[in-house]
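Hey,

Quick one before I head out. I ran the complex with dioxothiomolybdenum(VI) ion overnight. Inputs first:
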Amino acid sequence: MNRAAPAPLDNMGRPEPRLDGRAKVTGEARYGSDFVLNDAVHAFLITSPIAKGRIASIDTRAAKRLPGVLEVFTHENTRDLEEVPFSTGGGGATTSIQQMGPEIYHDGQIIGMTVADTYEVAQEAAALVKIEYEVEQPSATFGSPGLTQEDASKANERAKGLPQFGDADAAIAAAPVKFEAEYGTPTEHHNPIELFTTTAVWRDGEVTVYEPSQFVYGQKHNVAQKFGIDDARVRIVSPYVGGAFGSKAQFSPRTGFVVHAARVLNRPVKLVATRDQGFTVQTYRAETRHKIRFGAEQDGTIKGFSHEGFEVTSRPDPYTVAGVEDSARLYNYGTVKTHITLVHADRNTPGFMRSPPVVPYIYALENAMDELAVELGMDPVELRRKNDSMKDTTGKDWSSRALMQCYDEAASAFGWSRREATPGAMRDGDWLVGFGCASAVYPTHVGASAVRVRLESDGRVTVQVAAHDLGTGAYTVIGQMAAEQLGVPMSHVAVELGDSAFPAGPVAGGSNTTASCCNAVIKACEAILARLAAGPATPGNNTGVTRDFEEAFQRLGVGVVEEYAEYLPPGAKADTMAKLYRGTPFLGGGSKGEKLMYALGAEFVEVRVHRLTREIRVPRIVGAFAAGHIVNTRTARSQLMGGMIWGISSALHEATEIDPRNARYVNDNLADYLVPVNADIRDLQVILVPERDTFVNPAGIKGLGELGNVGTAAAVASAVYNATGVRVRDLPIRLEKLMA
Ligand code: MOS
């Protein structure tokens, strides 16, 4: 039915510069808190300094006496607010902890909010609120007293029916080579540059919310739910998002409080949460542990694989990362056993963070694969090749799988053949040199999306969809697809995103935006060309002159042709689009469909560890990735590069430390929460491996936003082992872990 996206034979699109680049560098781009600049009054959050207990008393008199203070909200005057159900998908709440007390479930819980004429007065008023607490001893993390555990498959829909293929215990027991190890990943926080902000304006019973969002339709529905009004009375505006990574995909309690305050005070209210508040009023990456077991033949053939995950979550919410769905499919293991245990502690509820669910789970799997290769005396690339298969353990086919092509291209660019397998064998002066590699994998999700495309007789095109550009390049690739389909230059294309007044778009999660929206754009453009009785555009003709549509427009006697189109991916149901308009996204693909749909890659790193100080450096990293049709090689490279840098960050730098005595985050700021700087990233190479796969969708797009940082940490851990002989299983790998 659809023509595949026109693209050169290698399936690589043009490296068009970003459509939103100029607006961003000139400061024209307006983010959530840039709206309503003069009329708004300001809110400041009061957050709990204790992690468990209850508010015994609260005294707001001094705060209210401060000149300029309009109101102080506490549990005493907000308890009638409706609650939005907790959800582990888009379109629900990040947490069920939505009351300002009196019960305290975690450090940093929102327990009050001041509103004043200025930000400074609101902040001062917050400090004047006197609160007394009944304090209980909290449980912070793995090993703390007072934790409770439950089987994730019994607590959360997402973990129902986890992969169990054959009798893995028996296969492992019978295998000549057995391997078993435990791995750990720490708590991590998104820390997008743009803080968590909400500005709410009520007018005539309707509310407009300006807030960075990964899913404006979900947010629209949730706000309506919270205030018991029709969805049609809510508009969410979020044209630009300064980073999100999963932290802005759902309804967070702060939004409800700000919208409530704006209604009660009948004034526009603006909240900009502080950096440290962002650590506790939003979600984060759950702390995890993993027990991996393999049984293998001497030649490297894996006969059994067992992956048990343990994840810390909050007391009330069964959030689960659930990455065994994907670790169970990466290779053909013969037999598979998986299990996930949720560990409830007195923490805020974790959530999606860049490449969930795979990041922690594939880290454990790939680190273990390298250890198994060492045990077998095999090259780790060859171990992957041995267990590479176009079918998974159950016999299900992959729609396409270029894992070993990625390994071969990256290995050759990296110079893997120069590797010495013996730890410590490669040296450069005082530096121990190590090489390591690992697989990257991310499920190809394809969502439902609507879109509106308008073509004017002079060749100007406008595309509208309530999708989101989190810095990923969505504006550009969506515009590029319209330009290619209609045969007009990019300079003629305008794209409008991030507004719930536009046709419904997918949640910007699971790397589906390009695939979902571009397929909808193709449908709308085809409808436009059909109305104009114009043939398809010449492939790749999007830089020259505009096609001459004048004759067709004259024939129709109109100046503008506009088409609305809906794209439904395989697996969608009759009501999928109606549900999307009501804030429930649909994301098919990955392991869920008829075939396994995944983007894949291979990453190779060189590390250098100083012989005496144990300082760790990553002078080189090479990643090769296959993700179907690449719409724009520039934005794709940029996403993969960012992902690999994030991977190095999670390998060597990142961890949110929690004090086990009081369950409070210690480094809740960007000075102490370590991320790499330019000096930490040296030679970084991204290779795009050509791949064609129109099973995944007519345009053949797999999506790659979240692919780049998967596996990186395992590659670094393997390289550190190769350099030093020390296997670090708990991230991050810091120099103290390499001290003899
Ligand atoms: Mo991404 S964590 O799927 O927003």
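Confidence is low (pLDDT under 50) at residues 1-6.

Talk tomorrow,
K.
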